[in-house]
Amino acid sequence: MKLWSGRFQKETDALVNDFNSSISFDARMYEEDITGSIAHATMLGECGIISPEDVNAIVNGLTELLADIKAGKVEFSADNEDIHMNVETLLTQRIGDAGKRLHTARSRNDQVAVDLRLYLRKEMAEIKEQILNLQRVILKQAKENQNTVMPGYTHLQRAQPITMAQHLLAYGSMLKRDVTRLEDCAERMNECPLGSGALAGTTHPINRLRTAELLGFSAPMANSLDGVSDRDYAVEFLSCMSILMMHLSRFAEEIILWCSWEFKYIELDDAYSTGSSIMPQKKNPDVAELVRGKTGRVYGALIGLLATMKSLPLAYNKDMQEDKEPVFDTIDTVKMCLPVFAAMIDTMKVLPENMRAAANRGFINATDCADYLAKRGMPFRDAYKITGQLVYRCTESGKTLEEMSLSELQEISPLFGPDVYDALSMETCVGQRCSYGGPSPSETTRQIELLQQFIDAHSEA
Questions:
Q1: Quick check: 106 and 36 in contact, CB under 8 A?
Q2: What percent of the chain is predicted at pLDDT more than 90?
Q3: Which residues of 259-294 are buried (b: 16+ CB within 10 A; e: fewer)?
Q4: Is the pLDDT of residue 132 over 70?
Q5: 1 compared with 419, residue with greater pLDDT
Q6: Is the CB of residue 91 less than 8 Å from the CB of residue 61?
Q7: Residue 342: pLDDT band by 50, 70, 90 thresholds?
């Protein structure tokens, strides 16, 4: 018999029972449900709402039940719909009437709200550590490639010379924002809905400050309607994860390009590549491709929950049961992607010679040529035009800028001198780009230090 069956004269139809049940997915919140129930029972006892004997029986019973669940000795039932009713039913079977008093001054509405917040708080901390570990991998590769010259791109066209270190550190910067977004989300989420009841609080003299304190929340939620109907934190979490996956997907796309024969800037380790069933020469970047593909799955979770919540009146509606599956699936997806992606980056082999060869073609030092003339007094727009004429001549003759003779250069402008060749070398082009955030080794050293400081500051003590 269901715990809420008093008003009903007929058993729930089996189809409705299956349709209504959420135990198949919310069972993963069993520890959070028991933790919240222990805090609730403790508060009820302190407020004199239930007896000390009942509190002891409930707390001891829940503690033993938690141990048995972790040991695999407990089976949940779909007849009890969700994790909350399963736990209460199992507890009552073990300790009798005291178990029936646990739900005093509480509703499943505020119970599920606190469970999901507790669960997300734990998972977000783990995801944050995985992001920091990916940053550690990026840091290692950046340190090894501060002098690895490569083309920087705009519009996927070779644009200006940079280094592999700077390119990698750009992703390190993106991931910094992902970490702080998660931290911001966790801070906003850290209010306790327990005690909101079904929607209107309770007539019992409860102490919501105490349950918030026991569960590690900064405060109770200020409004009981908001306490049971708010899912902003779940939407915000999915948004944070969507942005994170966007960053991984962009990085994955470049890995896919870089390991192709058309680029061949890197080679992926055999352990993080796959082959073809028919083409024996193939070495496919499946890890990067799957990360790119799974990004759409996380986006779908965000849009799905937004669509679910967009028209719901206050307070709780059964639609909101649909919040957990997209959140859980996103957690599982992100926690699967981050470690394997980090391992792929950690083990990839950078091919500096190929990057340098690509940098030598495509006139990526053309801006440096214009800057050379501008530093000698020519207005930049005139220098830009003259350099464009030089590039045209080079394309016609099959030369690079640095292969033009001094006399050819001086035909275009007498401001060119013998020192132009040093100014146009890739080492100079990169080394002199020492403006804040640039690709010069001195600047990437500073960026590396900043990233290391960030990782240290945001890692768990």
A1: no
A2: 90
A3: beeebebbbbeeebbeeeeeeeeeeebbbbeebbeb
A4: yes
A5: 419
A6: yes
A7: very high
Rounded CA-CA distance 225/441 in Å is 56
The residue from 155, 277, 407, 435 that is catalytic is 155
Type of residue numbered 268: L
Across the chain, mean pLDDT equals 94
Q: Which two tokens stand for residue 218?
A: 């900064």
Cα angle value 371/147/340 (rounded, 5°): 120
Surface-to-core class of residue 376, CB atoms within 10 Å of its CB (0-12 exposed, 13-18 middle, 19+ buried): middle
Confidence label for 8 from pLDDT (cuts 50, 70 and 90): low
* pLDDT reported for residue 4: 46
Could you report the per-residue pLDDT of 259-284, keeping only the tens digit for each? Answer: 999 999 999 999 999 998 899 889 99
Catalytic residue check, 84: no
Q: Are 451 and 176 in contact (CB under 8 A)?
A: yes
Residue 396's SS3 state is helix
- CB-CB contact of 29 with 76 (8 Å): no
Three-class secondary structure of residue 262 per DSSP = coil
Which one of 51, 77, 218, 276 is the catalytic residue? 276
Q: What percent of the chain has pLDDT over 70?
A: 95
Residue 418 burial (CB count, 10 A): 7
| 393-437 per-position pLDDT tens digit | 999 999 889 899 999 999 999 999 999 999 999 999 999 999 999
d(CA 59, CA 39): 9
At 191, which amino acid appears? E
57 and 102 in contact (C-beta within 8 Å)?
no
Tokens of 376: 């000698």
The DSSP bridge pattern shows strands 349-350 and 149-154 to be unpaired
Q: Is the peptide bond before 315 cis (omega within 30 degrees of 0)?
A: yes
Q: How far apart are CA 59 and CA 264, in angstroms?
A: 61
β-bridge partners, 158: 153
Query: What spatial distance separates the first Cα and last Cα of the chain, rounded to whole Å?
Result: 48
Pairing of strands 349-350, 266-267: antiparallel
Instruction: Specify the residue for token string 């999915």.
Output: 238
pLDDT at position 2: 54
* Residue 43 clears pLDDT 50, i.e. is over it: yes
Q: Is 97 helix (H, G, I), strand (E, B) or coil?
A: helix
Tokens of 378: 């020519």
Q: Is 155 a catalytic residue?
A: yes
